[in-house]
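ARCHIVE CARD
SHELF: 3
SLOT: left
DATA:
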Amino acid sequence: MSHTVLFVCTANVCRSPMAEALFNAQAQRIGENDHYVARSAGTWALNNQPASGNSIVAMTKRGIDLHKHRARTVTREMIDDAAVVLVMTRNHAEALKAEFPAHRPKIHLVSELTERMYDIADPYGSSIDDYETCARELETLIETGYPKIKAWISQGN
């Protein structure tokens, strides 16, 4: 049985696609890609938009290809199907918890993976250095917090 981890940001062209790809690469590296799979969406996505150019560059440097990514707006079905929902900002968390109150327990900030609560800055429209900073931060959070994601899934939230 495969459990879905849903990463959510605003437009689904920078942070959440990078997080999705980084999580899937981590699951692949440790041989758990049959058990855990990440997807991503945005609270205000323009459906079918490609990942931003700098997101593609930042992931390419990590051996990950984002060329096929297409943005999508988060739906009830995605939230229903996800074992855990990881959002980039407090605003994303508030919006999803208000729209999907039954799923409040499984919605978490990505930063909670390291026992902190802060927003992941949006690099959209910024320099490649800002994208690299965001990618490194997400990579660290996901690698460090991977066991915590698994624990949330096993606890049902």
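SLOT: right
DATA:
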Amino acid sequence: MMEQIFYGYFENAQETEPAYEPPRDAPCPFCGKPVSSDDVRTHNLIHGDRTYAQRGYFYRTHRTCAEKFGSLSMDGFILDMIARNGD
């Protein structure tokens, strides 16, 4: 199975390091170009489904893309991906 490149997660609130962290240069879900440290925004998500609710999810985009398009437009896409992948 291929590693998930768009989102990572913490198994519980006590973790200080993610259980899974996507590559730091993963593609921005908005534009597809690699995210870089000089233009990055981390978005945190809580999945409402009881199956996934124990985990804290996050994904990264370009800061400039998030400001241009708004993160809410991508949150649903990422949450659907989490459910589809069974993560």
